[in-house]
């Protein structure tokens, strides 16, 4: 999604016979972008920070899943922390200098790719946990080490594929100062990499892995089966609804230069890009908060900071855990409950 910062020159230099329409677009952009960026920033900051706090102080990294669920909020946190700068630059102009331009481009791009690659790893992890539960149970320590190595590799790969944008990022004077990279060759490489690592790879992985998971769950016994299926459909639906529109928009725009100067298409780019960024807010809900163990620790945190001093939630969670253990009486039921992170 870093491609959005490459369109700033056209956002400020749209050739249109209808100057009033152009003015309306700039006013819309000046209000919509900072509102959406800052909304994603606030909710993404709170949600992902909660995940990190709970994993650091309440929940040890006992499994491969836990390793990935720490890597994801770290990437999303750094990602959302760049948004206030882009919000200001999109509303006014770039005032932060060349060093910050390269730095923020690097932070933005690297963490975008880390986040998407980690989502792919989580999908594969869930496939292994559900479809090959016995193998995972017998080799938990080994899988955890592989998870740590995989997380490190996601950062290395993300840094490598982001180098062109970091190297070529610079501040240019157009109608106003903008931070961008602008090169036909680089733009083609960036678009191809973004489409493959940021959309097609996670999507294909979800289709393949979740199809096998659904097949396994349909043959499983236990009351959590239908809940697990619902979570799968929600995860896939959210990914498609948030990521598909923007990726289609930039793909269509890349086919013809005339789209750069179409005000109606610029509306589409801005709106779909903002929708795509919502993943940073939704990731904590989809990949951490649905877990019984995580929610139990979230309640502990709330009690420790004095939010619910008089609520006896411990017995509620004990009852839930007992029910979960009952569900895990058979191998198939265990497989089903293990999907509940």
Automatic annotation (TrEMBL):
Transmembrane stretches, by residue range? 31-57, 69-90, 110-133, 145-168, 188-210, 231-252, 264-290
Q: Where is the G-protein coupled receptors family 1 profile domain?
A: 47-287
- Coarse class of the primary localization is membrane
**Entry-linked Gene3D superfamilies:** Rhodopsin 7-helix transmembrane proteins (1.20.1070.10)
Mode of membrane association: Multi-pass membrane protein
Q: Which InterPro entries match?
A: CCR1-9-like (IPR050119), Chemokine_CXCR6 (IPR002235), Chemokine_rcpt (IPR000355), GPCR_Rhodpsn (IPR000276), GPCR_Rhodpsn_7TM (IPR017452)
Keywords tagged on the record:
Cell membrane, Disulfide bond, G-protein coupled receptor, Glycoprotein, Membrane, Receptor, Transducer, Transmembrane, Transmembrane helix
Record-linked Pfam families: 7tm_1
Chain coiled-coil ranges: none
Quote the subcellular location field of this record: Cell membrane
| Keyword Membrane part of the UniProt annotation | yes
Q: Is Kinase among this UniProt entry's keywords?
A: no
Q: What is stated as this protein's family in its record?
A: Belongs to the G-protein coupled receptor 1 family.
Q: What is this protein called?
A: C-X-C chemokine receptor type 6
Source species of the chain? Microtus ochrogaster (Prairie vole)
